[in-house]
Input
Amino acid sequence: MTKIAFTINGKQVSSDVEGRTLLVDLIRDELKLTGTHVGCDTSQCGCCTIQLDGDMVKSCAMLAAQADGANIVTIEGLADGDKLHAVQQAFTECHGLQCGFCTPGMIMASVGILKANPNPSDEEIVKGLEGNLCRCTGYVNIIKSVKRAAELMKV
Amino acid sequence: MRLIQGHGRYASDWNMAGQLFAAVLRSPHAAARIVRIDTAAALNAPGVRAVLTHADAEQAGFKSIVGGVALKDRNGQPMKKPHYPVLAKDQVAYVGQAVAFVVAESATAAQDATELIEVEYEEQPAVVEFADAVAPGAPRVHQDIEGNVAYVHEHGDAAAVEAAFARAHRTTRLKVDSQRLVCNPMEPRACLAAFDAATGRYTLHAPSQGLIGARTHIEQITGLPAKDVDLIVEDVGGSFGIRGTPYPEYFMAMLAARTLGKPVKWVGSRSDTFLSDYHGRALALCGEVALDETGRFLAFRWTDEINLGAYAGPFGAFIGTQNVSITSHGVYAVPAVYVRSTLAYTNTTPISAYRGAGRPDIAYAIERLVDQAAFEHGFDPLELRRRNFITPAQMPFKTATGPTYDSGDFPAVMEHALKASDWAGFPARRKESEARGRLRGIGLASYLEAAGAGTFNKDQTAARVGDDGRITIFCMAGGSGQGHETTFVGVFADELGVEQGVIEYRASDLAAADLIGNGTGGSRTAAGQGSAFKALARALIEKARPLASALLGGEADYADGRFSAGGKSVGLIDLARKMARGADGRHPLDCEAEASSPATFPNGCHVAEVEIDPDTGVTDIIRYTSIDDLGNVLQPMLVEGQVHGGVAQGWGQVFGEHAVYDRESGQFLTASFMDYAMPRADWLKGTFTRESHPVPTATNLMGAKGVGESGCSGSLPALMNALMSAVRPLGVKDLQMPVTPVVMWRTLNQTARKAA
Ligand code: FES
Ligand code: FES
Output
């Protein structure tokens, strides 16, 4: 067991973790932030994407112990109180989700894309979503949502 | 709103105080006798509370997993269905079959303990392919089923077809594979079960498509009366057909929860999904068409090979029988049709319904056959279709062997698609591609589906009125991304003429209203439940009318959410607020309604245009056009999303997805996202045009035809016909799915070598 402390969605937390505990399990099982999903066991689906120290990472591909001292934002912490983040707003407007299971990861990945590049082309969006799988939408409206979010973030 | 903020509640998001965790031991062999299972070491491992095997399931009285309806062939022989135990008994018949269920204080303890269970297996030879299973002397998947054939399905008039072929001017024959797929909803299966000893009731959270069906299965398999099981489903992360019925883990979790007196949670991994969710497709269709000298179709003959997997899955037998038969005429006026399907057991994961369940497969086979016939006999593929379409003047059209199509304008839908895709401009675009060293192809498919025939012949809905006048509406269809919430509230509010804000929708809340109705499936929800909500609104108005009349002092008329009589008026919601509840707690406007909706026939025409790089074998989709007649469309944006999703799944099957088993050992070779090619965001390089061409049906109140599978049914043939159009000029005779870049590259090279 290692004691770790980090910030998640603006809150300070600390926890005793086993060496083999994955960050995603800590977030879901211990902190009960179940918006971050687990869709695979090979780090391929992106359902578990979170923001860690400003970068988008797959939380299933990290050990909890590696998060010591980090600043984490999950889907639950993206909105500013009642005000949705532009990407969340855009996914709602453009019907960028169906079953919603991939959605938290898609939204976090999209936030990352737009952070690095506020004006992405279709190709750049597609490239940025390479690590995220969706079985429902055919991605068409997800790509539309990212473009819409880019517009929303400009105003 | 909830879902974009991370507040959804999927099966694995539920927790209960004091819960224990489960893990499953699965068979590593495709075929083996179980000689002995020793659980002692696992039981002694730290934190382990129980290790359950077949003996426990049998002691609890669990029966065979239900294998669909009782089918009888034309000789009166019933389908042969082996006993499908919840946990394997004396044999395992596929890799991944559940053998033992471990419950421990933590998920890792349970997982670790599965490795301590000693199972002595005696390996047997396995068969995984249809051809191998039905070959003379093949090993038997089940000892008592000789030849591994479960059932031979026949549909239509064999003699009439025979006669048509005898007098035909020309014939064409084409066999196509619809390869085995893993459905892969993004949510892996999971469940949480609890037992309340005081009331004798179970609570079960699990991803399920429809509650009545799931509870009926639970009752049939476990013997527990459905009324004692509270199945609570809030959000489901995709289902596509395979999550309609419960899986072994759910029964075992319920049993363990009762024996141990604690809630038991099981969270499956993606590997569990690959190995143990029912698989889809796994059939081959061999089509023959007989034509007269003018190109009119005289007959279709279908010979189908259905690989059922090791057992009869819940909907496994529907696919190769009812579902490939019902639309075996496609959009064509064919005077004679005969279908013969052979269903065989193999040592693979059982199949069940996946997105269309046989209907996209037959649509694919028909449209490839028509293109092939055009090519072989020198017809223009469009002209050949025009000559054979059922025309609007012929509607309603009674097909030779099957259903009556109520409505549709197939010629106009195709013309619409030709225009929207600029079919006429293709030769110029092909030239332009050739100049860049690329192969360009265009392909079209006119598909027809059958939707909306549920297990229950009607759908029931209920309205409960709150003291504040707000109305909550209920039905039985479980949502998993189809946007029911929005659709049903919209239908109901529109019919009442009130604002949507005063209506709330709750799916499948059995405690509040005991309803029957179909789960979400066969893309029937819009027509069926939608009609039932429309009927509910009408019932509510009629219930309120006498009360309004009394209040207003005259026979009240209703329009736009208000009753009026003699110059006075009252809003429906205000009226509801004024009414006092009865002694039984019911609000005077609480009401129920139902609607029965027969099968509908969504149809459409899809056009795909592709470009192939002959140096790499990589295919790009340059443009995709889908023109669909889905009848009246309730929520255009939701329907569009369903079509996008269906087309992407079709793309997946055409270009990459394939559940592959080793032919010798029966090992499952593509059991993770690393080996199984899912469609990613880059599948579509060009533009996607989707337009509606509605020809409303009169057979349900909504005029809707349903949408769920049309994307798959249109895209498989349109994409494959486009690929064939690109490579036929080079002498390529056939392509089979999946056409991965390697397959394409090899095909092109082999053809070139032969030509040289
Ligand atoms: S859970 Fe699939 S990538 Fe993390
Ligand atoms: S919305 Fe269902 S997986 Fe993406």
Observations:
- The beta strands of chain A are 2-8, 11-17, 49-52, 55-58, 71-73.
- Chain A touches chain B through 51 residues (CB under 8 Å).
- The mean pLDDT of chain A is 95.
- Residues 140-154 of chain A form the longest helix (15 residues).
